[in-house]
From TrEMBL:
Organismal lineage: Bacteria, Pseudomonadati, Pseudomonadota, Gammaproteobacteria, Enterobacterales
Designated name of the protein: Permuted papain-like amidase enzyme, YaeF/YiiX, C92 family
Length: 388
């Protein structure tokens, strides 16, 4: 993620990703402005020093300062329209391909970033052999390994590759018009301090606390579909709790670490930052100030689109969390369920308001949104989610 001198400069042009053009699984390449970015570009012969995956509503990336984390795509801006490039798979044979790709990318959240392994991409096979079985990440490895889990080999070596290697993959094509000029407001928003950045820092703190606690209890590894692995990711930490569910001290200490690190502070952040979305009168007032029915429809469509992007993942997260808590009945699983329930509740409340605002509109587009809202609410009700 780029920060241009740390702030927005009035009068300068900035460019952002056009989220309307993005599809799940898209690969985003970025030209960074830090000194190490220039080195990467020079050594690999590419304009781009960073690679990310769009998973629908959010981007997952591995960065030097935060490890693997997710963020929203409108929180980054570049100086030149060519400093972003969006790549998309030419052929999709399996309808579940992108589900496997994005699920794996999400499973890496919390992974540590390895500078040494990123540098070893150009360091020769003897150096790479030292890190061959490492689970640490860097940006292009995350992208290539995630695609490999979906059955797509983008580059010659998915463990040691650069953004340039991904850019040159013959299995990808560039998505036209995926980058556009940002308005002054959009640029300011993109370059402002983000609550998502604070959450990324808190996540790193939680993982560091957790690894120390697990080490104290003699827990170093967990079982995965790929075999026994050293604990590194958020998923690994949860799995360690499940596998050691009889250790109540471990359960209590890890749950306390979740609270102490600030990891739980993000779960209703949108409700605090964008309170109008959760209050019918405020939301309706915002709509009533639009200049025409067409503009009102665009605003509603954008709000509904944002809800749709996260709905399935959050619903599944809630279902999984509820099942885990029923199975283990731990303080840790209770906290996990709180996260999933609160984040799903946010979407549920937004759907209720959007449905109400489109209920008596005769324009066909409004009717389509209203029907989709009601379908989503019925799905919630089928899981007894009406009163979360």
């Amino acid at each position: 993620m780029n920060v241009i001198n740390g702030s927005y400069h009035e009068g300068e042009q900035y460019f952002i990703l056009d989220t309307d053009q993005l599809k799940i699984g898209d690969i985003i390449l970025e030209h960074g402005y830090a000194k190490h970015s220039d080195v990467i570009c020079s050594q690999t012969g590419s304009r781009y020093s960073h690679a990310m995956i769009y998973v629908g509503g959010t981007i997952i990336e591995a960065t030097l300062d935060g490890g693997v984390f997710s963020r929203v795509p409108n929180r980054s801006a570049v100086r030149d329209i060519n400093d972003f490039k969006v790549l998309r798979l030419k052929e999709t044979a399996d309808v579940n391909m992108f589900l496997h790709i994005t699920d794996y990318a999400r499973s890496l959240l919390g992974s540590k970033y390895s500078v040494a392994q990123a540098l070893s991409v150009k360091g020769g096979r003897s150096l790479q052999n030292i890190y061959q079985n490492s689970r640490k990440q860097f940006c292009s490895r995350l992208v290539a390994q995630s695609y490999a889990k979906g059955g797509v080999i983008l580059v010659q070596d998915v463990n040691f590759c650069s953004p340039a290697d991904i850019e040159r993959s013959d299995k990808l094509f560039e998505v036209p018009d995926a980058v556009r000029l940002a308005s002054a407001y959009e640029a300011q928003h993109a370059l402002a301090v983000s609550p998502h950045s604070e959450h990324a820092k808190n996540t790193v703190k939680f993982i560091d606390f957790s690894l120390k606690i697990l080490k104290k209890h003699g827990v170093k590894s967990v079982g995965t579909p790929d075999g026994e692995v050293l604990i590194m990711t958020l998923n690994d930490i949860s799995q360690a709790v499940y596998e050691n569910s009889s250790n109540h001290s471990l359960d209590e200490e890890l749950t306390q670490a979740m609270h102490d690190s600030g990891y739980l502070d993000h779960i209703d952040i949108d409700r605090k930052v964008n309170s109008f979305r959760y209050n019918y009168d405020q939301f309706k007032l915002m709509l009533d100030t639009t200049s025409s029915q067409e503009v009102m429809f665009e605003v509603l469509s954008d709000e509904f689109y944002q809800v749709c992007l996260g709905f399935s993942a959050r619903l599944q997260s809630y279902i999984n969390g509820r099942e885990n808590h029923r199975k283990f009945s731990l303080k840790y699983t209770e906290a996990e369920l709180l996260i999933a329930r609160t984040m799903l509740q946010c979407l549920y409340d937004r759907i209720v308001i959007i449905e109400k605002c489109t209920a008596n509109k005769n324009f066909s587009g409004f009717k389509d949104i209203n029907k989709a809202c009601n379908d989503m609410l019925k799905l919630n009700h089928s899981y007894n989610l009406k009163m979360l």
